[in-house]
Design a protein that fits this description.
Strand content: under 5%
Helix content: 55-70%
Length: 183
């Protein structure tokens, strides 16, 4: 082993000695096993990323906030990979290659969906600017706290903006004939 890699290994060991307990607590709080992810794999990835960071920046000091950020980004990456793996597998029919399945979305359904999306976009454009961003974020699955942070309002204000905006959006969509909505 060269002297440089020994110093990197020693610095990594020092960072792990300083923040190893915190790293373990962070790993447990994410409860990765619920998502089918082995926490030991993620912890190993964190160690590799810290090792690479130390090798890149030999004079830098690594604080708890940096280690926490490395853990968070590694966990997010692992969750994204797990989500991709959880995608529905392709059918294993050996009937005839190149044949499309009979069930699924036909051209009529596809056109209808496109029409609905353009109607939704039109209705969203008609909503007051203050409510448009919170509603759009809500429809994309963001939490109220995330919406509040981006919009620069309190969580309660974000909830009210989303609720009132959705009521207006549903009303306008009904007027355009896009059906009834569950409230």
């Amino acid at each position: 082993m060269s002297r440089d890699s020994e110093s990197v290994d020693a610095r990594l060991q020092q960072v792990l000695d300083d923040f190893g307990a915190r790293l373990g607590v962070l790993m447990r709080t994410y409860r990765l096993d619920r998502h089918g992810i082995d926490p030991a794999d993620v912890e190993q990835e964190v160690r590799i990323r810290l090792w690479k960071a130390i090798a890149r920046d030999r004079s830098g000091a690594f604080h708890a906030s940096y280690v926490q950020r490395v853990v968070a980004t590694t966990v997010i990456d692992a969750l994204r990979r797990a989500e991709v793996r959880a995608a529905e597998p392709l059918p294993e029919d050996d009937d005839e290659p190149g044949q499309l399945p009979e069930e699924g979305i036909g051209p009529e359904q596809s056109a209808s969906d496109g029409e609905r999306m353009s109607g939704l976009k039109q209705c969203l454009a008609e909503i007051p600017e203050r409510r448009r961003l919170p509603i759009t974020m809500h429809l994309q699955g963001f939490s109220l706290q995330e919406i509040a942070d981006v919009a620069g309002v309190s969580a309660e204000a974000a909830r009210k903006l989303v609720t009132r905006g959705l009521d207006g959006l549903k009303s306008r969509l009904r007027e355009l004939g896009y059906g009834d909505f569950d409230d």
